[in-house]
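User: Please predict the structure of the protein below. I'd like the answer in structure-token form so I can feed it into my own downstream comparison script.

Assistant: Understood. Taking the following sequence of 271 residues as input:
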Amino acid sequence: MVALSGKTALVTGAASGIGEGMAIRLAESGANLALCDLQETIHDVAGRIAEETGAQIHADAVDVRDPDQIFEFVDGANSHFSGLDIVIANAGIWRSTDPVEDTQEKTVADWDLLVDTNLKGVFLTGRAAIPHLVANGDGFILNIATDHICPPPGFATGGGTRMDVYDASKWGINGLTQSWAKRLVGDSIRVNAFCMDATDSAMIRYASAKFNREMSQEVTNMWMKPNQIADLMLELYDEGPDGRSGENIGIWLNHPIELPPKREVLPSRHP
């Protein structure tokens, strides 16, 4: 396992699912943790992880849509641990949206909820953390996107017919990931995104129920598990300062859960 003693990792949306899985693996690797989530249960999760691993944890209930809350949390974590090294922008949400059937009220409410959480939340988390990473001299940012923008070979991009706002919010993360990677390469900060297929979490269980999809034990056993995604995150981190940056990394069902070969870095048309 990657040794992270002395490192500090911040994870948003850490009270369950992928975020909790990331937090556990980071703690087991020796990192200090700054964990936040909209749910107050983040304190229970942090207490359990601290008891099981001995990790030092700074945790609080935070709404990543609120600039004051997320900047205060990130700044506080940096002060508490005297530095910041790893940022996992995981907080996200899904709702069914329909361009034909939705009322005006639902249309606006869905946009505000999904875009503010999935895109603005990642934006604010990164913008709050990046100055601290730069001051530290290096860093690692992992944004959580979706396989809808990075599908397995042979499949088209895009989600289902009732995912227009969700997909728009996740496509935006691609712009942040690539632009930040270019801007921060001189500061030894790597920025990538995981684009995952079905991973066991409250989100996919909620979505499956809304679409009346089968959720038998046989089906849920096929879903990827948060600890598998967390293990891949540690492998990506372990590539070190010369590792990849600016990549959307697809992780799909019925495919090996592994990092693909590094992509060739193409010249940019823009400074």
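That's the full token string. The CA atoms of residues 26 and 139 lie 15 Å apart.
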